[in-house]
Amino acid sequence: MLSIAALRAHLVRARLAGMVTTTREAGLRSYRLFAARDPRVLIGIDPEGPWQQRDLIDLMARRCGVSADPRHTFGPDAIDPDLTLAALDAFADRLGAAARRGAPVLFGTGHPHRLLGFYAALADVLSAAGCTVLTPAQGRCVDITTRFGLRTCRLEYVRGVALVRPSGAERSGCEPGAHTHSPLPVRLALAAAADAGGPLPELVIGDHGWVCGAGQLGFEAMGPADTNDPALFVGQAEGRVSVVVPLDDGVRPAYYRPLARYVLNRACLSQ
Q1: Cα–Cα dist 140/129, whole Å
Q2: Angle, helix 112-128 to helix 257-266, in steps of 10 degrees
C-alpha cells in the first residue's frame, strides 16, 4: 500500500498528474467544441447550463487544475495531483459503499489499451465481495461514428469490463479493443439489461461515454477523465456524474496499478 506522499509522487512521476502529456491545444479545442454542442465532445451529456468556452476553462481549472488563464493557448497542460488524490478518495468511498450493499455494477471503457487492467482489478474484487458484475448485450453490434465514418462494432466483455471491437475483425478476441468516446455502447448495455428484466446497475464505472451516457440516464456513474474531457466534469457540476478523477488517461497501463491498489485499500477491499 502506497502512502499518500508516495502515491502523489507516483502521479507526478508517471505524468498521470502534474504536467501531463495532453496538450493545452487539445483541451481548448474540446472546450470550443463542447460550447458549440458538438456530440463528439458531449459524449452523452445534455448540458443544462450555457457552458461557453470561458466557463469551461474556469470549471476545469477548479475541478482538474488546468491553467485558468485563457491566454495560455499552447504547450503542456497540468492536473493538480491533490485534486486527483481527493477524487480517488471519493471514488474509493463510493466503491466501498457499493461493495457493502452487494450492488450490481457495470464496468465499461473506451480506453481498453490503457485502462482495462485498472477496471478489471476493481471488477475482480467487487465480484469476490458479492457484487454482480453485469455483462448485458454481450456480442451485440452497435454502429459508432468515427473519424473514418460509420463503423459497426461488437460489444464484448474482458474480465467483466465492457469494450467494443470492430465487427468481423480477423483476430476477434485478441485485439485489446477500440478507442471510443461514444455513449452508444452503454445505452445498448443498459437497454439490454432492462429488456432482460434486470438487474440494472446501481453503479457504472468507466470513462468517456460510459460515464456520461449512464449519468445522463440517471444511473450513478463515476470514473477518470483527462484535461480534454470536459463532459464528465460538466456532468459532475450538474449532478449527473458522481465522481470524476482528473488524470491523464493515455499513459502506460502499468502506471494505473498503484491507483487500483490505493482505491481498493481505502475501500477496505484489499485481497
Answers
A1: 28
A2: 30
Task: Give the C-alpha separation, 56 to 31, whole Å.
Answer: 6
User: Could you please report the per-residue DSSP string of 7-70?
Assistant: HHHHHHHTTSSEEEEEEHHHHHHHHHHHHTT-HHHHTT---SS---HHHHHHHHHHHT-----T
Q: If you search the block for the grid coordinates 460489444, which residue do you land on? A: 155
Strand 161-166 and strand 105-108: the pairing is parallel
The pLDDT tens digits of the residues spanning 178-216 come to 999 999 999 999 999 999 998 999 999 999 999 999 999
For residue 171, pLDDT beyond 70: no
Please state the pTM of the whole predicted model: 0.95
Nearest to 56 by CA among 201, 262, 225: 225
Q: To 10 degrees, the CA torsion angle through 33, 16, 113, 107?
A: -80
Q: Which residues, other chains included, contact 143 with Cβ-Cβ below 8 Å and sequence gap of 6+?
A: 150, 151, 152, 153, 184
pLDDT digits (tens, 9 = 90+) for 42-68: 999 999 999 999 999 999 999 999 999
pLDDT of residue 145: 81
DSSP bridge partners of 155:
164
Query: Per-residue DSSP letters for 259-271?
Result: HHHHHHHHTT---
| Average pLDDT of the chain to the nearest whole number | 95
| Residue showing cell 491533490 | 82
